[in-house]
Automatic annotation (TrEMBL):
Listed GO MF terms: sodium:phosphate symporter activity
Coiled coil: none
Pfam families reported in the protein's UniProt record: Na_Pi_cotrans
Protein name: Uncharacterized protein
Signal peptide bounds: 1-18
Broad class of where this protein is predominantly found: membrane
Location within or outside the cell: Cell membrane
GO terms for cellular component: plasma membrane
GO terms (BP aspect): sodium-dependent phosphate transport
Keywords from the UniProt entry: Cell membrane, Membrane, Signal, Transmembrane, Transmembrane helix
Amino acid sequence: MKFCILLTLLILPFSSNASITEPYQLDYFSMLMRLFGGLAMFLYGMEKMSDALKRTAGSRMKQVLGTLTTNRMSSVATGAGLTAVIQ
């Protein structure tokens, strides 16, 4: 059953455009709207996450980050670690 679904998903994109003979025209308006919509959703999510982190951790997080980022190497390691956790 899983094999049939996988095979269908692999073949379907190739068979759907087989009858199209005219050159493909890009829809720039749709492309730009999706780009700006995605960017807006990303920025909204970052704002919400930033507010939630400030509310939960507050000044304690500021103190911990201050002690963890005393030099460049520890700052890089802290940034990479926090990015990995948040992602």
